[in-house]
Each structure stands twice: as structure tokens, then as C-alpha cells.
Amino acid sequence: MTIDVRQAVSQAKNHVNQIIDLFGKVNDIRLEEIELSSDKKSWFITLGFLFDSPINQQKTIPDILKTTMKIREYKVVEIDAETGELKSIKIREL
After folding, report:
1. d(CA 21, CA 67)
2. DSSP code of 56?
3. In this structure, what DSSP letter does residue 41 have?
4. Contact of 45 with 79, CB cutoff 8 Å
5. Domain range enclosing 87
6. Which of 66, 68, 86, 85 is nearest to 76 (CA)?
7. Considering its fold, how many domains does the chain have in total?
8. Would you say the pTM of this structure is higher than 0.85?
9. Phi then psi dihedrals of residue 40, to 5 deg
10. What is the DSSP letter of 65?
């Protein structure tokens, strides 16, 4: 039995939530992309995360901006389309 798109997204989120503490301080997790592989064996679920990234203090910018910036990064979670098992989590290159 093949899992449907909702189940694939749910599985991807569940797997990521189990290890989210390993990513560092993240917030605003969003579903960005969904793709079923051409052989229909894998779902590729792209999730976006906001990370707090300190600004380099050596740059000359107004003090008001010397706090933190938010940087959005993306992870592609590959889910087995048959079983819903995690196959991989990779950085999504833009």
C-alpha cells in the first residue's frame, strides 16, 4: 500500500521533530515543496526553517542592526512511498 501526500508530509514532519534539537535554534517550520519521484518509490518533502544567525560584528552597520538576522534554510526529507520510513534528510541547495 502506497502512502498518500498527506501521510508523506506528516511522516516527514514527525521524523524532523524527533531530531529538531540537533539543528540548533529553529522556528517557523514551513512546508515548501512536495515531489513524488518518477519511479513513485519516494516522496521528497522540502521543509523550510528560520535560524537565528548572528551578524558579523566587524562590519560597519548601524548599532540598531547589530542584533540577529533570520536566515531561512531548507531540508529535503526523503520518505519511502511504500512504508513511510525515513530514507534521508539533506540540505536543499538553492
Report:
1. 23
2. P
3. S
4. yes
5. 5-91
6. 86
7. 1
8. no
9. 60, 25
10. G
